[in-house]
Amino acid sequence: MSRTDTLKSLEVVIESFLERAVSLKSGRLDVLDGINRLDDIARSTGEPGTFQQVELSDQIGEWFAQHRQWIDDSTLRASDLNRIGQILGGITKEIDSSGQFTPATEKIRAEIERWQSRMTAAPSQSRPTTGRKIVLRKGPESLDEAGVHPSNQDSIGLYAESLKTMAGLFEDLSRDRLHLMSILDDSLKTASLKKSREALLLSASIIYYLKQNGYMIEPFVKRLKEAERLQKRSRAGA
Amino acid sequence: MLNPAEKAYLQALQALREKQYGQAAGYFDRAAEFFGNNREFSLLRETTNLLLEVKKAIAAAEGRNDDVLIAEEIISYGKETKLS
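The joint structure predicted for all components is written out below.
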């Protein structure tokens, strides 16, 4: 077998691997593609001078028609539903802020509302909730006769102190950094390597902030859980 | 809203599905800052790069040069000119 033949065999093997790998993700790929298209439509509504109501109405209508089955089956994950809800909310907000109330905008709004109501109804119909019930208890908001809080701990003061430490840590980590994710990366490393509780809390706060801003945070959540596990183990061994 | 890295990863996967490996590699590069620690992402990215290297080696062995695309635009003072 010549060198070229060997290379060609390798080419076939690698192409076949990639084809199968992508094929395994085919379902998710379709969902993400659909969300991405809706996202593109939403972004086009925000571009000045491009708000073409009839065209937008057509695009959204077409998108809804193509993805109607998503509501009826269990294709979508909770995070997908959340994202679609956010994007549809953004489109509605854009229409409202444009101040244009025409048959086209009303049609879009009605279609979005119909979808949102079906989306919130769908999970309860198709996916029974199996979540655990959590009961939180706390002591009364008053001091005892000796003027001491019953829990014997100034939780507000402790939290304020923790916030200060986190703010200082954030300032240190943000030097020479251009993106919040770089700071998060450093904060997670500090939480894991130095077993810093404040770094762990800071990381959790940044992750939640990124989540609120629509970033994909799963890899960071994994690292946060790992750092938390390391800290627990370290405390147990101390 | 999807962030640019998520969009790039999605486009990379779509390009792989269409067997547009060069394009896929470009999209993977754009998404790398965000997904660099994701094992699945890294596997697909490195495999795609490996495939491109193999294709390049095959082209070189066969005396082809697939990398070079020569595009020449013939425009003079804003007007099209006839190709001679």
